[in-house]
């Protein structure tokens, strides 16, 4: 047996033994973390296997972010397939499989594809809408258990970004606007994923992102898109946005991801953060002493075809350089791994030409190998398909997710009161009305229930507006006119998916009962409105009073809109009907 395969030996010795056996090409393979996807809608099984063989066997890559998969069994089978390919290589270094968030209500191929066969939870802002930290810990523990069954050992999250710019199209993936709340929930989430005091065989490693904080996007337009690379600090709050990361590092975080954005108007270099020496080398590595894995956000070096879209290269501020030159700068400032990219020959060429030393590559290889050993992947290369099927569909996890959806609902206005169970209800945007007596005739409706999305401007969002919503937070005049007509006919109940903090004042003027939600099923919404379940959530961010207030606020300063409609932490608590009936007067 090779010494590095002996589980009784100390991890550091195993790392050094394996490192000593590796060629530069094999070390370079560790430093790339592209996507992998089993056969499905986008390509055939044969094409998927061909691509996997190219990446695993030929290129020597052993870290992958899994896309698609169809269901739990599909993901688990693909994991085992690529592990078999890895075992066939010279050193048999196993695959570390990662994933973006999979448990949310909204599916986005750029930031997290929902998987129907595992539990469904509110988006991350919804976890922050539940008082305390236990929901974040429980959510992360559920992810850990389900991901372990599927073979996924790295979670590309949580986002420790502060939602300081209300227009930011990725704000719903954060723990909200309050820096202290973001920090404490990030820590709880990391600990829940870890499942113990230290990273081990029952852990899922967290990749806390996006250092040094991605919230202050200029006008909220996300840096996924080449149109919007700027990150700004008009309030000088750079240090505030770093604070949640400091807390995460103190709690034992082992990986961190840099963001795409390039800071403008600061003392930092005006280049993307992965290439930014003052940020990665001076703050992250030296001042904060972070010695874990630093991975870039996706496709900074070369482009990738995603359907009809060519994504990348996203090396803002260094677009004029070659992929080789960008790779050199990132490695020099302290990056260990390139997310999304899949060309290890770039690193080989840098070493062969003497532009980067092999000793520097060894530093990154050690960090990456150490985590594979800590996670026990060498000893547990395959997952049990039956267990994946049973765990992915376990009722206990689905029940936990549904309970979190319910607890995250925020009652903002209660003018119409409890929705009567036996009224004739006209619904819009609601599919599951099994507990309601529904009517399609507005004139005979005794109550009207409408589900809305937070507003956005079509075509304005980053990459594609279908997935990244930007621009205005005001409802269109057409929507408001329709709701005003509804309110004139019957008591009006409106729920708003607060992907971003919508301007809700015009809804309140209609005398509606208004609920903010962050990802919840129709049944969860109806049960809350009809008083079957209590409503206890609190806002994770301010609700602005107007777009003028938003436009006049500073992107990096939390709680900076003038005279907000509602403050973070606000929420009307309403018990279930049966609870209220039992409460003495």
Would you mind describing this structure in some detail?
The structure is a single chain. The protein has 585 residues and is an alpha/beta fold. It has helices at residues 11-21, 24-30, 45-58, 72-87, 124-128, 134-150, 179-194, 238-250, 277-287, 323-333, 345-352, 358-374, 385-392, 395-407, 477-487, 505-508, 522-529, 547-551, 577-582; strands at residues 32-33, 35-36, 63-66, 96-99, 152-155, 205-211, 230-232, 255-258, 262-264, 293-295, 304-306, 309-311, 338-339, 410-414, 424-428, 437-438, 447-453, 492-497, 513-517. The strands form five sheets. A seven-stranded parallel beta sheet has the order 2-3-4-5-6-8-10. Strands 14-19-18-17-15-16 form a six-stranded mixed beta sheet. Helix 15 (477-487) links the parallel strand 17 (447-453) and strand 18.
Summarize the structure.
By secondary structure, the protein is of the alpha/beta class. It is 34% helix and 13% strand.
Strand tally, please?
19
Biggest sheet, in brief?
7 strands, parallel
Termini Cα gap: 75 Å
Count the helices. How many?
19
Radius of gyration: 24 Å
Widest sheet: strand ordering: 2-3-4-5-6-8-10
Give the overall shape. globular
Give the proportion of residues in helices: 25-40%
Low-confidence runs of at least 5 consecutive residues: 579-585
Structural class computed from helices and strand pairing:
alpha/beta
Mean pLDDT over all positions: 94
Residues in β-strands, percent: 5-15%
How would you summarize the topology of this molecule?
Blueprint: H1 11-21, H2 24-30, E1 32-33, E2 35-36, H3 45-58, E3 63-66, H4 72-87, E4 96-99, H5 124-128, H6 134-150, E5 152-155, H7 179-194, E6 205-211, E7 230-232, H8 238-250, E8 255-258, E9 262-264, H9 277-287, E10 293-295, E11 304-306, E12 309-311, H10 323-333, E13 338-339, H11 345-352, H12 358-374, H13 385-392, H14 395-407, E14 410-414, E15 424-428, E16 437-438, E17 447-453, H15 477-487, E18 492-497, H16 505-508, E19 513-517, H17 522-529, H18 547-551, H19 577-582
Parallel strand pairs: 1-13, 2-3, 3-4, 4-5, 5-6, 6-8, 7-9, 8-10, 15-16, 15-17, 17-18, 18-19
Antiparallel strand pairs: 11-12, 14-19
């Amino acid at each position: 047996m090779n010494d590095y395969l002996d589980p009784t030996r100390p991890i550091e010795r195993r790392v050094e033994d394996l490192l000593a056996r590796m060629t530069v090409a094999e070390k370079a393979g560790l430093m790339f973390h592209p996507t992998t996807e089993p056969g499905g809608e986008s390509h055939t099984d044969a094409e998927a296997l061909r691509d996997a063989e190219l990446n695993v066997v030929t290129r020597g890559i052993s870290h992958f972010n899994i896309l698609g998969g169809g269901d739990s069994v599909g993901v688990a089978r693909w994991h085992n397939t690529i592990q078999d390919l890895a075992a066939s290589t010279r050193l048999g270094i196993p695959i570390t499989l990662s994933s973006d968030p999979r448990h949310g209500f909204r599916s986005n191929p750029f930031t997290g594809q929902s998987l129907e066969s595992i539990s469904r939870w509110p988006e991350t802002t919804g976890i922050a809408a539940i008082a305390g930290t236990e929901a974040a810990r429980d959510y992360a523990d559920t992810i850990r258990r389900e991901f372990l069954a599927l073979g996924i050992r790295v979670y590309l999250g949580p986002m420790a970004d502060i939602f300081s710019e209300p227009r930011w199209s990725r704000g719903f993936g954060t723990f909200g606007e309050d820096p202290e709340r973001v920090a404490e929930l990030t820590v709880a989430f990391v600990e829940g994923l870890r499942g113990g005091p230290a990273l081990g065989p029952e852990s899922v490693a967290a990749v806390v992102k996006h250092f040094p904080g991605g919230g202050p996007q200029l006008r909220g337009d996300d840096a996924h898109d080449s149109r919007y690379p700027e990150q700004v600090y008009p309030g000088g709050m750079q240090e505030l946005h770093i604070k949640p990361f400091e807390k995460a590092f103190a709690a034992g975080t082992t990986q961190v991801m840099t963001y795409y954005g390039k800071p403008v108007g600061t003392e930092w270099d005006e280049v993307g953060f992965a290439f930014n020496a003052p940020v990665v080398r001076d703050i992250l590595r030296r001042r904060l002493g972070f010695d874990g894995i630093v991975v870039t956000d996706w496709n900074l070096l070369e482009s990738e075809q995603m359907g009809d879209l060519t994504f990348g290269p996203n090396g803002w501020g260094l677009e004029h350089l070659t992929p080789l030159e960008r790779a050199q700068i990132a490695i020099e400032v302290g990056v260990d791994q390139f997310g999304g990219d899949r060309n290890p020959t770039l690193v080989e060429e840098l070493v062969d030409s003497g532009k980067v030393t092999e000793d520097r590559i060894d530093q990154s290889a050690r960090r990456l190998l150490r985590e594979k050993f800590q996670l026990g992947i060498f000893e547990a290369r395959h997952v049990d398909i039956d267990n994946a099927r049973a765990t992915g569909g376990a009722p206990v996890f689905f029940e936990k997710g549904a309970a979190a959806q319910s607890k995250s609902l925020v009652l903002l206005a209660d003018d119409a009161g409890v929705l009567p169970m036996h009224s004739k209800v006209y619904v819009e945007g609601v599919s599951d009305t099994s507990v309601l007596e529904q009517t399609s005739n507005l004139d005979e409706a005794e109550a009207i229930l409408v589900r809305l999305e937070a507003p956005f401007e079509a075509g304005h969002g980053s990459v594609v507006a279908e997935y990244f919503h930007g621009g205005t937070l005001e409802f269109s005049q057409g929507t408001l006119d329709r709701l005003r007509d509804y309110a004139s006919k019957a008591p009006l109940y409106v729920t708003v998916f607060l992907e971003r903090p919508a301007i809700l004042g015009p809804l309140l003027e209609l005398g509606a009962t208004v609920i903010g939600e962050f990802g919840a099923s129709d049944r969860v919404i109806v049960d809350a409105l009809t008083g079957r379940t209590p409503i206890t959530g609190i806002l994770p961010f301010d609700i602005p009073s107007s777009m003028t207030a938003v436009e006049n606020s500073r992107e990096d300063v939390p709680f900076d809109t003038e005279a907000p409609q509602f403050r973070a932490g606000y929420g009307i608590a309403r018990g279930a009907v049966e609870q209220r009936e039992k409460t003495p007067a």
